[in-house]
Amino acid sequence: MSKKSERRSERATYRHGDLHGALVRAGLDLARDGGPEAVVLREATRRAGVAPSAAYRHFADREALLAAVCSAAQAEFARAIEAEQAAVDPGLAGVALARARFWAVGLGYMGFARREPGLFQAAFWLSRDLNRATSPERRGETGLTPFELLGAALDGLVAAGVLPPERRPGAELLAWSAVHGLATLRTEGPLGGLPADQIEALERRLVESVERGL
To answer: Is 30 found in the same domain as 119?
Structure first.
C-alpha cells in the first residue's frame, strides 16, 4: 500500500480522539487475554482501527507500547485494591479500621491476580525499577499506585498503634514480597490447580501471617 493510500485508509477507519490511549487500551485487552507476550503493535493497531504505521507516531517499538500497557495494568491494579478498601465496613474506626484497610490491600492484590492473571503478569513485565512503583501513570482513583496504597495502609497501622514505628521502615517490601509470591505461585506456578476456596483461605492466612510478622 502506498503512503498516500495508507493515510486515506487511516483517516477512513480512525475514529478515536486519542490514538495513544486507544492503542494502550487495545494493548490492555491483548494482555488481559494472553498476558504480556500477546501485546504486539500490529494487533493493537488493528483493534484500534488504524494502519500499523500510525502506532510509530506514539510508540517507537513494541517494548514502548508494552511499557505503557504495564503502567496501565498497574493503574487497573490500584483500582482493584481501592475497590477492596471501599468495601471495608464504614462503621470501623481506630485499630479495627487500620487493620481492615491493610487486609484490603493484601486481599485486593491477590484477588486481582486471580481474576486478571494476564494483566497481573503484564503489570510487572517491565517493572524492574522500584522508582517506577510511584510513577503517576500507575495511580488509581485515589492518586496512589498499588505500592503507595500498601505504604499508606502500613502508615495507618503505625498511627493506630498496631505496628511499632521502628518496624515501619522497609515493611512494604516484606509485605509485598509475601503477597506477590503467593499470587505468582497461583497464576504461574504449581498452586494454579488448587480449588478457589482453598486459595482464598491461603490468602487470608498469608495476610494474617504478614500482619503478625510485622
So the answer is: no
